[in-house]
Amino acid sequence: MTLLEQIKDAGIVGCGGAGFPTHVKLNCTVEYLIVNAAECEPLLRTDRWLMIHKSREIISAAARISKMIQAEKCFIALKETYREEIEALESAIAETGASVSLYRMRNFYPAGDEQIMVCDVTGRTVPPSGIPLDVGAVVSNLATVYSIYGASMGQPFTSKYLTVTGAVSSPCIIHAPLGTSFSRCLKEAGGSLLNRYHVIAGGPMMGKCYTMEEAEGLTVTKTTSGFILVEDDAPLVQAHEIPLSVSLRRARMCCIQCSFCTQMCPRYLTGHPLKPHMIMRKLAYASSPEEALEDPGVQQAMICSECGLCETYACPMGLQPRQVNIYVKNLLRQKSFCYPKPAKTFQQLEERGCRRVPSKRLAARLGVDQYYDYHIDRCVEAVPDRVQISLRQHIGAPSRPLVSPGDRVTCGQLIGAIPEKALGANIHASIDGTVAQVSQSEIIISAHIQ
Ligand code: SF4
Ligand code: SF4
């Protein structure tokens, strides 16, 4: 069986983003393979833990992937401040003799945005609405590469390493079977230090924010990178709670057109024609949102990565250009608008090098800097007695359930298959147990009681 077939069988998807099926992404030949190890979201520590504790597996998998896609150059891109991680990876490279190099990036946000990373490593700008493959590169998240190592050893994707941090008793890395509940993860981290809290699923910049009650329904999926507990009055929680109608009204009334949002926009700095201040202006002065949507300058909202720097860091008026862009994108998608990929090449702007936002300053703006310097090295194995496995953990069609209530399953058994001729990913049982419930969206398994 080829490595690509092993990846498909194991149900590997991109762990760092929306879960694009990896067997589709890696079905190519390219010049550059870049392993994204920057982990640029403040507070997340999972990739750093993996680099220290699973360095040989990561280097070995990177070398195998590189060979499979015939990459001439294979880089692990990480931050220059990751001293211990660099040491571990360099030792693994020396031991294995793999043709893998490290690319040291500065400690800024969003170093882990794949287009920013490609720009840094190759000097090439991915075209607006394009993908790294357009400039001869494939970027794979570090956790994905580690999962590919498992696939190459015949192990399906059944568990995830994630960070549980913030206002918890004992911040840690948790190794959890897919479908483990948030409550179980919180328990493994010693519980909450707060009576009331919000939970960020993912990183504080791009993750989703949940109330304490909503978080009860969260489970670990293939794309879960962490759970962060924060105070109800943390600035990032307040920002999440601003209603869209208020953001739009403020855009009309308070935007002073200073253009700082554009000047600091990472995508604009790579040479893309994205100017959030112009979108704010055109929406403010259009007689209706529909009229504004006809404007090519407003349509550029489609190439916004939603990194959030404009509203968290750049805007002196506390406005929400990102939220406005998301609103515009949704309206344009409803009209089936596709941003045309330009044929010309783009060049990064000269000033890009001096407009980088240090991660720690960003954490302070978000109101989570008290958790920034946590040294997280403890890894806990979660052993849940019940898992709730989503059949929609990836981009594409939901997996087709292959089991029924009452079936006994073993960890690693295929329980959800890719529908015929569809984009998707296989799903496997993450614990030994009995199927308790099956729907079109999830499979619940109860562990065998010993
Ligand atoms: S969220 Fe703001 S800063 Fe980030 S890409 Fe979009 S417009 Fe640029
Ligand atoms: S930074 Fe804020 S005030 Fe300045 S142009 Fe952008 S949205 Fe308007």
Radius of gyration from the CA trace?
22 Å
Widest sheet, order of strands: 9-8-10-6-7-12
Query: Strand count, sense and closure of the main sheet?
Result: 6 strands, mixed
CATH architecture type of the largest domain: 3-Layer(aba) Sandwich
Structural class category: alpha/beta
> Mean of the pLDDT scores?
95
What ions, cofactors and ligands are bound? Answer: iron/sulfur cluster
Q: What is the count of DSSP helices, taking H or I runs of 4+ residues?
A: 19
CATH superfamily of the largest domain: NADH-ubiquinone oxidoreductase 51kDa subunit
Quick overview:
By secondary structure, this protein is α/β, with parallel strands linked by helices. The chain has 19 helices and 19 strands. The chain has helices at residues 3-10, 22-25, 46-53, 55-68, 83-96, 114-122, 142-152, 182-188, 212-215, 235-240, 244-254, 260-263, 266-269, 276-285, 289-293, 296-299, 309-314, 321-334, 359-366, and strands at residues 32-36, 73-79, 101-105, 108-109, 137-141, 159-166, 172-177, 198-201, 208-211, 226-230, 357-358, 379-381, 386-390, 400-401, 408-409, 414-417, 427-428, 433-438, 442-447.
Detailed description of the structure:
The protein is an alpha/beta fold and 450 residues long. The chain has helices spanning 3-10, 22-25, 46-53, 55-68, 83-96, 114-122, 142-152, 182-188, 212-215, 235-240, 244-254, 260-263, 266-269, 276-285, 289-293, 296-299, 309-314, 321-334, 359-366; strands at 32-36, 73-79, 101-105, 108-109, 137-141, 159-166, 172-177, 198-201, 208-211, 226-230, 357-358, 379-381, 386-390, 400-401, 408-409, 414-417, 427-428, 433-438, 442-447. The protein folds into four domains: 3-152, 3-Layer(aba) Sandwich (Rossmann fold); 158-234 and 367-384, Ubiquitin-like (UB roll) (Roll); 244-357, no CATH class; 385-450, OB fold (Dihydrolipoamide Acetyltransferase, E2P) (Beta Barrel). It is built from 19 helices and 19 strands. The strands form five sheets. A six-stranded mixed β-sheet has the order 9-8-10-6-7-12, with helices on both faces. Strands 3-2-1-5 form a four-stranded parallel β-sheet, with helices on both faces. A four-stranded antiparallel β-sheet has the order 13-19-18-15, with no helix packed on it. Helix 1 (3-10) packs across helix 7 and helix 14 packs across helix 18. The two termini are 36 Å apart. The mean pLDDT is 95. The structure holds iron/sulfur cluster (SF4) (2 copies). The site of one iron/sulfur cluster has 14 residues, from helix 12 and helix 14.
